[in-house]
Amino acid sequence: MNLEKIGKTKKERKVPAYFIKLNKKKSKKKIIFLLMIILVIFACLFSVIYTITNFNRNKIFAIISKDKSYSVSGYIIYNQNEELFILENIAINDTSIGTDLEPIIKKYNVTIKNDKETFCSYEVNIDNNYNAKLSEALKISKVSFNESNDKNNIINSDNIKNLYIVLSYVDINDNVTEEIIKLKAIEDYANNKLFY
């Protein structure tokens, strides 16, 4: 046995060391390959979960008036974090606007409702020294509310269909007038497509 060990050449003794190095390189490549596969699986899994949880969760509805006597513009924005209602403009489309027949008011109230509940009420008192015409006063009316303002009265997608505004105002003779403006919500955007 000793004679056999001594009789081996240097080249023959290096062969097992070469195979050990080769085996180490192959095992490193296998580990890197397995790590890459695990990363790809996690990335795919994250993408699928993210898509499922956020699909069709973001929506924007444009709010317009059904009533030809009024022009209304606004938005309802839904996302996974909150719901936001923004009423930007209420304008009167009447022949009395800009004439002496247009009401001069002391205060007005804008209430957003549907058949079942009231979502928001917004009252504006005009300065006693300056009584405004109704069309001028409504130009400054911007109503907005979200979940942080009132978590109980949020317009969700179930009760968006029968929205309306109750506009009531008091003129300089203390006459109270109340008008109902029916609203229509039109879906402007929704993230319900996988590819745009």
Summarize the structure.
This protein is an alpha+beta fold and 196 residues long. It has three helices and nine strands; from the N terminus they run ααββββββαβββ. The mean pLDDT is 79.
Describe the structure.
- The protein is of the alpha+beta class and about 200 residues long.
- The protein folds into 2 domains: about 1-55; about 60-190, Sandwich (Immunoglobulin-like).
- Helices cover about 30% and strands about 35% of the residues.
- It contains 3 helices and 9 strands, in the order ααββββββαβββ.
- Strands 1, 2, 3, 4, 5, 6, 7, 8 and 9 form a 9-stranded antiparallel beta sheet that branches.
- A hairpin with a 4-residue loop joins β1 (about 60-65) and β2 (about 70-80).
- The chain is rod-shaped, with a radius of gyration of 35 Å.
How would the blueprint of this fold be written?
Layout: H1 2-7, H2 10-54, E1 59-65, E2 70-78, E3 83-92, E4 104-113, E5 118-125, E6 132-133, H3 134-139, E7 143-146, E8 164-171, E9 176-190
Antiparallel strand pairs: 1-2, 1-9, 2-3, 3-7, 4-5, 4-6, 4-8, 8-9
